[in-house]
Amino acid sequence: MQPPRRPATFRLDDPELILQEAEPDTADLLIEPLPQNGEIAATSAVATATAPRRRPLATLFWTSLSGLVSLGFGLAVTALVEDLFARSQWLGWIGVGLVVLFVLALVLIIGRELLALRRLGRIDGLRARAEAAVLKDDRALALGVVDELVALYSTVPATARGRSSLQQHRGEVIDGADLVHLAERELMTGLDAEARRIVSNASKRVAAITAVAPRAVIDIAVVAATSAALIRGIAGVYGGRPGTIGFFRLIRHVLAHLAVTGGMAAGESVIDQLVGHGIAAKLSARLGEGVINGILTARIGLAAIAVCRPLPFSAREAPTLRDVAGGLFEGKKPG
Q1: Residue 7 located in a structural domain
Q2: Within 13 A of 268's CA, how many CA atoms are on the CB side?
Q3: Among positive and negative, which fits the CA dihedral 170, 175, 177, 181?
Q4: Phi-psi domain of 45 (left: phi exceeds 0; alpha: psi -120 through 50; beta: other)
Q5: Residue 53 — φ and ψ, nearest 5°?
Q6: In CA terms, which of 140, 154, 249, 263 is 20 to 30 Å from 111?
Q7: Number of structural domains in the chain
Q8: For this UniProt entry, which segments traverse the membrane (predicted)?
């Protein structure tokens, strides 16, 4: 038998309030709320992706190849240092010093990459636990999410007021889902606004540059470079700060999210954006290409927000293409 639901506060005029008739206790039912009308509504189906299959032959191949390359490089460096000692004693010691510096720098780079990967994994795990806490209404799980979220942003000055308010009111919230919603409203509001501003500025910049670029290869280079900087910037806003390896991993996640959500046509098609604003017939060919490139950049930014954000969009509505790219058509900055 399903345990009774804990008390919760709500407003009768809340548009998200759903009144449901009681069902007979014949089976345990799990009711999952529908995703919001945003383009990047975080669903459990996307978060709980199927685990990739293990390929032992590929793993054995790459492991043995990397081992051979490492051994070859080590033997080459050893032979070089021996040759330097054979030529001159001081040349040999210079070679040893350079090898020591190389090894030290390599260790530091590997350590930095591992820390960056750990941060990205921490954010992914935090988002998954937050989704589970909202779905199951688990207060204990939600408290763990809140504590980890506060620790994640403990050094971010922009979240100081939100962290203080969250710590002050966390004991007053009974339901786990409400606690996650409170954390989202207190900590994510300012970060979401900053992420939207970055996406909006990037889409406008790409649209302006590619509209006057003489060749398509320049368009591709501008979109690629801006998108890479955009993904890294959004990850930094939400506390990811990816390294080189983590950045490529983040790009893979963004592209996977774009594939799941239908790419550029998710939610609002490009044709709807152009014709809906009544300017399709007024645009020149180059200006139209610039607008399309700006929309593509905005789509990539929206996917990056969904991937880098440590909490799912539950209490707040997910941003849409019109929110971040509306300035391409209306001549005003999206809010």
Answers
A1: no
A2: 23
A3: negative
A4: alpha
A5: -75, 145
A6: 154
A7: 2
A8: 57-78, 90-110
pLDDT in tens, 10-47: 555 555 556 555 454 444 444 444 444 444 444 444 44
Query: Which residues are CB-contacts of 299 (< 8 A; sequence separation ≥ 6)?
Result: 258, 263, 264, 266, 321
Please give the single-letter amino acid code of residue 148.
E
Distances (CA, A) of 181 to 32, 145, 304, 315: 16, 11, 21, 5
- Is the same domain home to 70 and 193? no
Q: At which of 81, 106, 121 does a domain end?
A: 121
Q: What DSSP designation does 83 have?
A: H
**Contact predicate 326/294, CB 8 Å:** no
- Tokens for 30, please give them: 């799990």
The per-residue pLDDT for range 264-301, each reduced to its tens digit, is: 444 445 545 444 444 444 455 667 777 888 888 888 88
Write down which residue in 121, 139, 168 finishes a domain: 121
Total residues belonging to the chain: 335
- Does residue 309 lie within any of the structural domains? yes
- Give the residue from 144, 121, 123 showing the smallest Cα distance to 133: 144
**131 and 94, same domain (yes or no):** no
85 and 222 share one domain: no
Q: Is 86 within the bounds of a domain?
A: yes
DSSP 262: T
Q: What is the pTM of this model?
A: 0.67
pLDDT in tens, 185-218: 888 888 999 999 999 999 888 888 888 877 778 8
Contacts of 119 (CB under 8 A, 6+ apart): 239, 240, 241, 242, 246
